[in-house]
Structure formats: C-alpha cells, structure tokens
Amino acid sequence: MRRALRPLILLIILLILGGVGATYYARLKMQAQNSPAKPKKLAPGTAATFHGWTYTHTSNQQTVITVHAEDFQEVEGKQELTGLELDIYHKDGNQYDRVKSAKAEFDMSQGILYSEGEVEITMGVSEDQPPSGRLMVIKSSGVRVESKTGKASTDRLATFQFDRGRGKAVGAEYDPNTRELVMHSQVELIWRGSNPKTIPMKVETGEVHYKERDAKVYLSPWSKLSRDTMTLNAGPATVSLNEGTIKLVETTQAHGTDQRPGRNLEYGANQLTIDFNDNNQITKITGVEQGRLVATADTAVTTLTSDRVTLFFETTSDNSVLNTALAEGHSLAESKPVAVAGLEPADTRILKSDTINMRMRAGGQEIECIDTPSAAAIEFIPNRAGEPHRWVNGDRVSIAYGERNQIRSFRTVNVATRTEKPKPKDAKEAPPPELTWSKDLLATFQPNSSQLAKLEQWNDFRYEAGERRAKAERALLDQANNVIELTGSSRVSDNTGSADANRIVLDQKSGDFSAEGNVSSTRLPDKKRDNAGGGGMLSEDEPLHARAKKMRSTDSNLQIRYDGDAVLWQGANRLQADVVEIDRDENMLKAHGHVLSQLLDKAADPPKTGEAKKTATNPAARVFTVVKAPELEYNDVQRIALYTGGVELERPNMRVKAREIHAFLRTGSDSSLDHTFADGKVEIVQTAPTRVRNGASEHAEYYVDEDKVILEGGQPQFTDSLRGATRGEKLTWFSKDDRLLVNGVEDKPAKSVLKRKVK
Prior knowledge:
The chain contains 1 helix and 45 strands. The longest helix has about 35 residues, at about 1-35.
C-alpha cells in the first residue's frame, strides 16, 4: 500500500510545484507589465532629452523670457529646441515679443537663440489682446535672437509685416527695447493708408533704419518711392510716419514723374519734401535748390524752375491731382510747343520773375493760369521763319490758358516791350527794334494755336522804332494784319515830321498810317533832290503844317492824303480843300473840292552895301495871291499850279475869274507868284481908290513884276471907269504905267469908247 501511495504523492507534489510556478510567473508578468518602460539609449554626445520642455527667466521678480519647446535635447552643451516659442517681455511687463521657429538652438548660458530655418517674430503681443503695433511680424531664416535683450538679426532675406504695410530686405536687425529696425540691403516696403482700399506706396532703397518710437524711417544711400503713376528717385531720404501712415518724405537729389494719359509731370530738386495724407496720397511737394517742374501735354512742354518750387495737390477718393505750382526765387517758366502734323509751331515762351504761381485746371492735366505778384519778363521766341522775336517786361503778370495748355491771354502793368523782326529778303540789314511802353497791357492769342492775335496797351502808351515815334492813350496791335491802332491823343512822328489825331492806324510792315479825328500834321522840309523844284507849296525852307478830319500816309510818307476840311500851310502860304493829295516822289500836289490857296509874295531883298536904304517908318505890306477853285494840281518841279472847275484869283486891288488858271511860281525857294495864265471866260477886275478897270477874254496872262495883263481870244475887252472900253484881238495892260496896248500897238486901239469927265 505504501508503494501504491508513493506515485500519488509525487503527482500531488508536482501539481503543487506547477501551481506555485504558474503563480510566480504570473506575478512576474504582471510586475513587468506594470513597471516603467526602460529609457532609450541616448545618442553619443547627448546629455539629456525632454518632451514639452519649458524654461522661464526672471529678474527682480519680473519675468524676462519664457521659452517653450515641444522637444528639447542637450547636445555637446547646446540646447536644441523643436516647436519653439520664445516670449521676450518688454520692460513694462504688459507686452512681449514672441519668437516662433520649427527648430532652433538655444544657448541658455549666453542667452542666444539661433534658427537656421524660418523664424517668425510677432511684436507687441498683449496677454489679453491680439497682436498689434506698428511693426507686427518679422519673418526670416538664419535668425539670431538675444533672449536677454530681445535683439534679433539675420543676414538673409527677411519679410516684415506692419499694421499698415509690409516689406522685405536682405539682412536685418531689430532691437525691441529701442524699437529700431535696420534693413541692410535690397529693401522694399509697401505702405498702405488707413483705408485698405487705397493704392499703396512702394518704397525701395539700399538700407533702412526704422526708428519706431520716433516714427522715422531713414533710407540710404538711395531711395525710390512709387504709387500708381507716380515715381520718385532720390538720394538718402527720411520718411516720417503718423500712426503708421506716411506723412512726410524728405530727400535729396530727387527726380519724380507722374505719367497719366494726356499729361506727364516731372519734378525734382536738390532737396525735396513730399507731404501725404492718411491714404498715402500726395498733398504737397516742396523742392528747394534747383527746384524743377516739367508738365508735358499734347501741345506744349512747360518747364518751371526756381530756387524753391512747391506743388499743391487736390486729393480724391483714389488719386492726387496737381492743383497749384508755386515757384519762389529766380523763377523761370518756359513753354515749348510740341510738333503737331498740319499745324505751324507756336512761339516758345519764357517767363522770368522772382515768384511765379501756376494754377492747373480740374484734373491737373492742363494749365489754367500763371501769375506773378512782382516784376516779370516774358520772351516770345519764334519757331517759324519770318516771325518776330518779342520781349515784354512788366509788373504783376497774369497769363490765362485755354485747352491743351495753349496760351489764351496775358496781362501786365507798367510794361515795356521790345520786338525784333528778321531781315527781309534782299535787305542789307534788319529793321530797327520796335519798343513800346504803357501802364497796362493785354495780349490775346489765336484759339488752338498760341499765336499772338492782338496786343492792347493803354494809359500813356509810347512807341519807338528807329526814327519813328508814336504815343496815345491806347494802342491795339492786330498781329494778323501787323497793324497798330492808336486812340486818344494819338501821335506818330519821325525825322520827316509828325501827325496828331484822335485815332491813328499804323501798318508796321509798310510804315503806312491813317489818321482821323482832329488830324494835325507837320512835315519838315525835304532835302534837295536832283529833280526837285523847291519852294512853293512844297518848300524846302519851312515845315509843312496840315489839319484835316482824316489823313493817310503811304510809301514812307511820300504819298499823303488829307480828307475833310483840309488845311495846309507853310509859313504864310496856305491851302484849303475838301481833299488834298501830296505825291512827294513825283513832287505833285492835288486838291479837290472848295480849294482855296494863299501864296505870299516874297519881300524884296534888302539893299546891298553902299546902296541907299529906305527910310519908311512902316515896312511894306505883305502881298498875297488868293485862289479859289474846285480843283488844284500843283507840280513842284515845273512850279505850276493848275486850278480848274471855275476859278477866282485875288491879289491886292485885283480879282480874276476863269474856268481854269495856271499859276507859275518863282524858281528857287521863293514861293511868290511869278505869273498866271487864265483860260475860259476870263474876267479881270482891278480896283483903285479913283477908278475900276475890267478885262474880259478867253485867255489872259498876268505878270506880277511888270504888273502886266494880257487879254486875248474871244474878243478881248478892257474897260476903264475913267477912260472907257477898248476891244481888240490882243489887249496888253500895264497897271503901274497906266498903259494899254491894242494888238501890240500903243495908243492905237482897234475900237475904243472914251468917257468924258462930267463937270
């Protein structure tokens, strides 16, 4: 039985040992499952690794920086961070700058963070507010950040996000304590205004130093600003900001353009300042030292230069439009015409003054007017052959423009002008310059051509061209006809004489003029010519005076016509008529209508030395020959005056009537009557205190020195109140000698009727 139980006991023991072993191994398995995982083996050189690592640095119980990383490992003394966020607190502790990077190296002992990959720096983060501030976000790679100061730098491409713009540069530094940003090269900034819909301003430069606290951006060594159609290239520049928007740009060696359809503006100066509104729109541009504005339109290029040029702009919802340009100090405005097919070019105009104010039309594409508050000079330079060159000097010049920048008129006061005309073809020299003066001047120009149409001057107008002079209260130049009209106390004069009238019209090309209204003229004696007669009505010794309602002078004063109650006189010689015409080239004078001439006999020469002198107390009375007729024609070479149309001739104690009379004047400078021929129903009456003599014939001759009358033709008849009547084929009567010849034989009349004395 004992042998039978032994196997059973062994089996029981084995079962117990199996159960204990199973329990042991079960417990071991449970312990293995519940025990911590065995740490992975660290890579060579790695001191430690962490997941969800955080580091905080404080100073004076104030947090300075906080660093958080998804993963941290320390390798050879450097801390490598993955999924980094670095918060650098400002001194006030209310805001911080956050640096984010996918991977970075952080040296806690040195406080230096470096990221080879992309880094994003958000500025001015508040604990309880979203990010805001002028400079908001910086993105770059290869960034080095000082955790103690928050300074960040890179030498790679960096982009910047502002609250009202953005930018980029290659190489940058930012100090959050001083809030200064330096962009080292290839800088480009895009600044928009307070209204996101407005057109932004693009700023390009070599280097930027942005001082956020001072709201200043310094651009160097060059700068370029562009917005829409505006572009500005310059040297170093300073940009002033106001609440994040550009308010002022100050630069040097600047040159800007604004190109729009139908208009192109260029401006520049050694020192240039640009003012902006909140929408980055230009409100004013100021150029100092060699300031310059060039406005190019379809028809003209206008250039404005000065010591200081200020451009004022009007702003619309999306645009800046030039409104006014003000030039101060040695200012000059030049307008050159643009060549247009089919149109003759206008003059080039140059305006000089200390101050020039140019105002633009609505839209800023065309000039409306130019004004100068002080003295100015305008030069008109011709661009067409044969056109005159003009200068105008005056005070307070005002120029008005029409469409397409074409001058419409200009006005000035206290003015002096100068006009130089080109030398005519085949002429030896150019005509003398024409000079004018007046208190007021208004010039108007032809529409759509900018060519001078009329030039009006008034208040004490004066004119001078070589030996020719003129004056009037008002003068009007008709450029198309090259005619000057003078009104109000008008006068023209030259070395040959003068003419005064209420109105005078002067042809500048030919020198001809006409006058009307109270005309009064004086003609100085002519120099002797080979064919000149001399004396008489065109005497070389005395000036010729004239009055009439109208007068016209042509052919360099060689042809003169007086109309309406004309009166001419030389010394005591006098001529009246409705119309008087003088041809000095042919030495002819003609008078028409109610002709009346008065010729003075020359006094006898004084006795020569040794001859007896007259002892009469009273000098001899002057002797005149007065002739009345409808028509007169006088030839100064032949010294003959022909009166026609029914003539009456009177001398002392004698009167002659005839259909026509030839009056022969003495030769030389003597205007005395030498003899006359009368034809056609001649009647002669001679009166004396005791007798009357009458003569009648078809032809009669009278000789002054001999006091002789010859009657012939038409059955001549001579009647003496004392002696009776005598007839004959030819009667010759000597008044001084009281002799009468009949047919050339004395005292043998062909037929006589004698009167006896009544006792």
